[in-house]
Design a protein that fits this description.
Blueprint lengths: L2 H15 L6 H11 L8 H12 L16 H15 E4 L6 E7 L3 H10 L5 E5 L2 E6 L2 H10 L4 H49 L8 H12 L5 H8 L3 H16 L20
Antiparallel strand pairs: 1-2, 2-4, 3-4
Helix pairs in contact: 1-7, 2-4, 7-10, 8-10, 9-10
Length: 270
C-alpha cells in the first residue's frame, strides 16, 4: 500500500479503537472480541484493552454467547474481533479485509458474519484460519456496522474518485483511438483523391463524389458529420462517396483508348 493508504487504514483502526460503548454489555462483548492475546497490535488497541478492563466489566467471563446476544452486542464483539485479528488492505485500488484466527474459529466466524448478512469466504492457510472479504461493498457495510463512520467516508470518497479517474481514462483512451482511426482514414482518402486526380479519373466521377473530394481536401481534419453539414447532405452519402474514392484508387486505371479505336477492336503490335 502507499503511505496515504496506510495512513487511512491507521486512522480507521484508531477511530474504531476510540469508540466508547455506552452499554455495559457492549463493553463486555467488545472485550470478549478482543480476547487476551493481542500480540503486537497497535497502541490504540492496547489502550482500548486496558480501558475495557478498568471499566469494571468482566472482560473474560467466559465465551461470548453470540446466539442470544442482541445486535448491538454482536456489533461490539465484531469490532473487538476486527481490532484483534483483522487487517485491511487498500493496495492497488483493491479493498481486501481478512481475519486471521485459529483454524477451528474460521468457520464459526464466517457463519456469524453470514448470519448478519455479510457472507465471507474462509480457508485454512499455514495452520491458521483466514476469513476474507474482497468486495469493497461488503467491507464498507461491515466497517459501517462496527462504527467506522469518519474514516469510512474518506475511504468511500477515494473509491469514487478512483472509479471516476478510471472512467475518464477509459473515455480518453476511446476518444484517442477514434481520433487515430479518423486521422488514418482521412490520410487514405486524401491519397486516393490525389491518385484519382493524377490519372484523370476524378473528373469522371459523379458530381456529389467530386464535391465530397473537394471538401475533404479543403478540410482534412473534418469528421464525416462535419463534412455532411458543410455540404448539406446525409452523413451516409459522404461516407459512401469517400469509400467509392478509396475503392477506385485501389483498382488499376483502365488503359486509355487511342483515337479511332472501336470497342472490341484488337490492335496489332509490330
Amino acid at each position: 500500500m502507499t503511505s496515504s493508504e496506510r495512513d487511512l487504514v491507521t486512522a480507521l483502526r484508531n477511530e474504531l479503537a476510540g469508540v466508547d460503548p455506552a452499554r455495559a454489555c457492549d463493553r463486555v462483548a467488545e472485550a470478549a472480541g478482543l480476547g487476551s492475546d493481542l500480540g503486537a497490535r497497535e497502541p490504540a488497541v492496547a489502550r482500548l484493552a486496558v480501558r475495557l478492563r478498568r471499566s469494571g466489566d468482566p472482560s473474560s467471563a467466559g465465551p461470548f454467547d453470540w446466539s442470544s446476544a442482541p445486535e448491538h452486542c454482536r456489533s461490539a464483539w465484531l469490532r473487538g474481533r476486527f481490532l484483534a485479528r483483522g487487517s485491511l488492505s487498500l493496495a492497488g485500488g483493491r479493498t481486501h479485509l481478512e481475519f486471521v484466527v485459529k483454524a477451528d474459529e474460521a468457520p464459526v466466524l464466517a457463519a456469524r458474519l453470514d448470519e448478519v448478512g455479510l457472507p465471507a469466504s474462509w480457508r485454512v492457510r499455514r495452520g491458521k484460519g483466514v476469513v476474507t472479504w474482497k468486495s469493497a461493498e461488503a467491507v464498507g457495510t461491515f466497517l459501517r456496522r462496527i462504527g467506522a463512520a469518519g474514516a469510512l467516508l474518506e475511504l468511500e470518497a477515494r473509491q469514487v474518485s478512483r472509479a471516476l479517474r478510471g472512467e475518464l481514462n477509459r473515455v480518453l483512451n476511446a476518444e484517442s483511438a477514434n481520433l487515430q482511426r479518423a486521422v488514418a482514414a482521412a490520410g487514405r482518402q486524401l491519397d486516393a483523391i490525389a491518385a484519382l486526380e493524377a490519372d484523370g479519373r476524378l473528373t469522371a466521377q459523379p458530381y456529389l463524389v467530386r464535391l465530397v473530394a473537394d471538401a475533404r481536401r479543403e478540410t482534412p481534419e473534418a469528421t464525416l458529420a462535419e463534412l455532411a453539414g458543410r455540404l448539406e447532405v446525409h452523413r451516409s452519402a459522404v461516407q459512401r462517396a469517400l469509400e467509392r474514392l478509396e475503392r477506385l484508387a485501389e483498382a488499376e486505371p483502365a488503359e486509355p483508348r487511342l483515337r479511332g479505336d472501336r470497342p472490341g477492336m484488337v490492335r496489332a503490335h509490330a
